[in-house]
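hiii, so i know i said id send this last week but things got crazy w the move. better late than never?? heres the sequnce for the chain we talked about at the cafe, plus the structure i predicted for it. fair warning i was half asleep when i ran it
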Amino acid sequence: MAEIEKTKKKKVMVAIDANECSHYALEWALENLTDHVTAIPLTLFTVQSISDINYIYAATHGSTAPELIKSVQEQQSKLAAALLERAKDICSGRGVIAETMSRVGDPKEAICEAVEKFKVELLVLGNQGKGTLKRTFLGSVSNYCVQHANCPVLVVKKPA
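okay and structure toks below
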């Protein structure tokens, strides 16, 4: 029975954003988790934050034109697609099949929801290295995921 557990491949998800730390985490996962990411398609996941739209809404005192909101949403979708395509190309270059997913929402909550929904067995995140003050006031996606994700979470810190 223990032999079977050792050979079972795990579903791995890497959360990607525009920060280079997340791409480093992807590279790290491809290099160090080879057995798992080559046996089962690697899941690449990004979240389109709704906060940008909230800023526009607040800046216009609640009278944002629907066209402006739609334009911002379309731009966010294009950026998310480009991020995932770049990550998928990195995977292809290493001979790894990847599936991509994008959601709109609060990144930390959306990541944890995706982990549960898609039965992810290992979540890989990059560490942006926020200072103590920023982390205290803004929160940390990686800290939240470590506390709330229903699977082990690997936080990869890029060397200085």
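btw The domain at 2-49+82-157 is CATH 3.40.50.620 (Rossmann fold). thought thatd interest u
miss u guys!!
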